[in-house]
Amino acid sequence: MKTSSHLESPLQTIKHPLLTAKKIQLQVKRDDLLHPSVQGNKWRKLKYNLIALKRQQSQCLLTFGGAFSNHLYATAMASKLFHIPAHFIVRGPHLDLSNPTIRFAKACKVNLHPVTRIEYRQRHDVHYLEQLKHQFPSAFIIPEGGSNQFALQGCKELAQSLPPSDYLCCAVGSGGTLAGILQGVHKTTKVLGFAVLKNAEYLNGEVTTLNPSALELTNWQILTEFHGGGYGKFSTSLWDFCQTMKRDHHLPLEPIYTGKMMYGLWQMIEQDQFPQHSRIIAIHTGGLQGLDGLRYRRLI
Q1: Beta strands 11-14 and 25-30, pairing class
Q2: What kind of architecture, by CATH, is found in domain 40-146?
């Protein structure tokens, strides 16, 4: 299976008086430009999962997601592009067919299976997964968010594609992107993960479970104070920052993942938490389709 015909995504240098004053070089890895629909870390995670699916001669894929999930959106497009039938266990219990993410998935001809929130909580349970294997015997199962060992290979490639830097920053939801980056980044680069949900200290364990070698590494840290109120929540000041970055720097952001990371990073620069002459690369992990969902819910 040919998994990509796209060139590597570009690096955008941000020019701003604050950065000049602090003597900081800030670049953004624009993985949101990898593909119009299968973009960012979702493509990085899906790439080797789809290769494994073909190698195992699975006839379809099965995965999990919320009704506004970036993973659902990206995997639906991948299903269409590569002609792989797909089944989604969707946190429900009902599907809102006016939801733009659900409408897109339906247009891609994927099969949506809404379940109660109680059932959805079993998505990591071994016995529940065995039941799904019996129900969908030819399916290749990809976990929620796409984070597994196959995903790490794609995120490792992302790190290896970057020029040298002192700091590398990314948003953290499930830990898969960060775990993969740690496999490919130079040990002298400090990796900063910005947790997008509350009470996220457990993510350290998620990262080391996915990538046990991270236990021995001292060049990474998950920052838990920039969640903006919790997953899916954001302040007016955060949204204003996102709009300013788009207007002044042509950098589109959403306030759920990359926007939180960039806003947190900006505050750290203002507070002199980086030495002068630091080279910082921030990874834009995509997810811009989420803006349609926020508009649909009248949150922006």
Answers
A1: antiparallel
A2: 3-Layer(aba) Sandwich (3.40)
Tokens at residue 209, please?
A: 């479970």
- What residue segments make up the domains of the chain, in order of their start? 11-36+150-296, 40-146
3-state class (DSSP) for residue 97: coil
Cα dihedral across residues 290, 158, 166, 192: positive or negative: positive
25 three-class SS: strand
For the segment 250-262, what is each residue's pLDDT rounded down to a tens digit? 999 999 999 999 9
Q: Is a pLDDT exceeding 90 seen at residue 97? A: yes
Q: Which of 180, 192, 190 shows the shortest CA–CA distance to 156?
A: 180
What is the rounded distance in angstroms from the CA atom of residue 62 to the CA atom of residue 113? 10
Q: Which residues pair with 192 in a beta bridge?
A: 169, 221
Q: Residue 60 forms beta bridges with which residues?
A: 139
If pLDDT is split at 50, 70 and 90, which confidence band does 74 have?
very high
Question: 11-36+150-296 has which CATH code?
Answer: 3.40.50.1100
For 199: left if phi > 0, alpha if psi spans -120 to 50, otherwise beta; the answer is: left
For residue 4, the cross-strand partners are: none
- Cα→Cα distances 32→9, 12, 107, 219, Å: 8, 12, 22, 26
3-state secondary structure at position 106: helix
Q: Is 165 one of the catalytic residues?
A: no
Does 40-146 match 11-36+150-296 at the fold level?
Answer: yes
Nearest to 49 by CA among 84, 6, 80: 84
Report pTM: 0.94
Q: Which candidate in 37, 69, 79, 174 is catalytic?
A: 69
* Residue 299 identity (one-letter amino acid): L
The whole-angstrom separation of Cα 43 and Cα 245 is 24
